[in-house]
Amino acid sequence: MTSPHASGIWDTFKRVIAPRADRFADRLEALGPNRASRDPNGAVRIDVDGNGTRDLTADKLDFPSLSSRSNLVIRWEYSLGSTLFLAWQHDRSGSDADRRFRFGERLGDLFRSPANNVLLVKLNYWLGL
């Protein structure tokens, strides 16, 4: 089963100024609060060139993600060389408006989200000619 919760909160914004610089620290320029800020709705306003005019707007970069995936495979050899396979896949995912990582509280939200179930059956019969 995969991790049931992931979240990301962006709090520092940078601009690439020298992508091939030898040192990683020389490749990026940090955008201070006068050049990158959030509006009350969570959208980020960015002034790339520093002239005081907003050049870019990014809506809600923070992300919450809830997901669970599991598989179960059963193999039964009911006769010499003849097998029956049952495979079940379960998947559920969702998102959450609260962008903070809180594993215990979000586990219940995950299991209340819609689920997809797939059941596969494969039957092999050995003719033995």
Give an account of the 3D structure.
By secondary structure, the chain is mainly beta. Helices cover 8% and strands 47% of the residues. Strands 1-7-8-9 form a four-stranded antiparallel beta sheet, with helices on one face. A three-stranded antiparallel beta sheet has the order 4-5-6, with no helix packed on it. It is elongated, with a radius of gyration of 25 Å.
Uncertain segments: none
* Termini Cα gap: 42 Å
> Which value, in Å, is the CA radius of gyration?
25 Å
> Quick one: how many beta strands?
9
Largest sheet strand order? 1-7-8-9
Biggest sheet architecture:
4 strands, antiparallel
Mean pLDDT: 82
Q: Assess the beta-strand content as a share of residues.
A: over 45%
Could you give the order of the helices and strands?
A: EEEEEEEEHE
- Globular, elongated, flat, extended or rod-shaped: what is the shape? elongated
Number of contiguous helices: 1
Percentage of residues assigned to helices: under 10%
Structural class: mainly beta
Write the layout of secondary structure elements.
Blueprint: E1 5-8, E2 13-16, E3 28-31, E4 36-38, E5 44-46, E6 56-58, E7 63-79, E8 82-94, H1 103-112, E9 115-124
Antiparallel strand pairs: 1-7, 2-3, 4-5, 5-6, 7-8, 8-9
